[in-house]
Write a structure and sequence with these properties.
The protein has 252 residues and is α/β, with parallel strands linked by helices. Helix content is 27%, strand content 21%. The chain starts with a helix and ends with a strand. 44% of the residues are buried.
C-alpha cells in the first residue's frame, strides 16, 4: 500500500537536511538546500504524531511523516518532499521546463486552462473542487466533481468508485497524498486517457509516472523568504506569487 510513498521518499538523497520548518495554520513550509516546499496544512490531528521533527534532521526522515494518519503531521511530510523535488535545481535536472526568473502565476501551465481543448466532449472526473471548474470545464465536457465536503452539484467521495473508472480524463487533488486515497484513485483511473495530479503541493517526483500518472501539475517556489512569510501569515499574497506553475508530462 505504501509503494508510491516509499518510491518518492527513497528518491530524496540522504545528505539533504531540514534547514527550516514552519507549521502554519494554513500552509506548512520546509526548506532544505537551495529549495523549499509547501503543503496546505490539512486539519485532522485525532491520531498522535509518530515522528520527530527537528532542524538538522535528514530530509528523507521528515518526509516519512507523510505516511502518518495524523493529517497535520502528514502535511509536514508532504512539504518535506516538495523541499527536494520542487526546488528549481532538482526540478530542472529531472526535466521540468522552467521559465527563467519567472515569479508570477503562469496561466499557460494552469492545468484547467491548458486542458480545455483536450477534454472537449469527454467524460471528466475532478477529485477536489478547484476554482472556476464550472466556467472552464463544465461548458465543454461531461464533468463530475468529487469532494470530501461536497457543495452544490458535487458528488460525495464514495462516488469515486463509480465515476472515476468511467472517466476519460481524471484530475486528482494532491491532498489525496495526505488523505492516503491517491493509490486507490490511480487504480480506479487505470483505463483513463489521461491522469493528472493537481496542486501546488504536488511533488515533482519522477516515481509518479511509474504508477499511472500522465501529468504532474505543480508549483516551483523561487522566493523562499516570501513563501515563509506567507506560511507565517505575515504576507497576504497567495503562494503563487512566490514562483511559477509547472506542467510536467510523462515521456512516451
Amino acid at each position: 500500500m505504501w509503494k508510491i510513498y516509499d518510491a518518492i521518499i527513497s528518491g530524496i538523497p540522504e545528505e539533504y537536511t531540514v534547514e527550516d520548518l514552519l507549521l502554519g495554520g494554513y500552509t506548512t513550509y520546509v526548506k532544505s538546500g537551495s529549495g523549499c516546499g509547501v503543503a496546505g496544512t490539512i486539519p485532522g490531528d485525532s491520531r498522535p504524531e509518530i515522528l520527530r521533527r527537528e532542524i538538522g534532521m535528514p530530509l528523507h526522515e521528515l518526509a516519512e511523516a507523510v505516511k502518518s494518519w495524523n493529517y497535520v503531521e502528514s502535511s509536514i511530510g508532504l512539504a518535506a518532499m516538495n523541499a527536494y523535488y520542487n526546488s528549481p535545481e532538482i526540478a530542472a535536472e529531472h526535466g521540468v521546463e522552467l521559465s527563467p526568473n519567472r515569479t508570477t502565476e503562469d496561466r499557460k501551465n494552469d492545468p484547467f486552462i491548458m486542458s480545455q481543448s483536450r477534454i472537449k466532449n469527454k467524460k471528466v472526473c475532478v477529485i477536489g473542487h478547484f476554482p472556476r471548474l464550472e466556467q472552464l470545464f463544465a461548458p465543454v465536457c461531461d464533468l463530475s466533481i468529487i469532494e470530501i465536503l461536497p457543495g452544490p452539484d458535487d458528488y460525495p467521495e464514495p462516488a469515486s468508485d463509480y465515476l472515476v473508472p468511467e472517466a476519460d480524463f481524471v484530475f486528482i487533488t494532491c491532498a489525496s497524498i495526505v488523505y492516503k486515497t491517491l493509490s486507490r484513485y490511480l487504480k480506479l483511473a487505470k483505463n483513463a486517457e489521461n491522469v493528472v495530479i493537481v496542486g501546488s503541493s504536488t511533488p515533482l517526483a519522477p516515481a509518479f509516472f511509474d504508477f499511472g500518472v500522465d501529468d504532474i501539475s505543480s508549483f516551483v517556489i523561487r522566493d523562499c523568504d516570501h513563501a515563509k512569510r506567507i506560511a507565517q501569515g505575515l504576507d497576504m499574497d497567495r503562494i503563487h506569487s512566490t514562483g511559477q506553475k509547472v506542467s510536467w508530462k510523462r515521456q512516451t
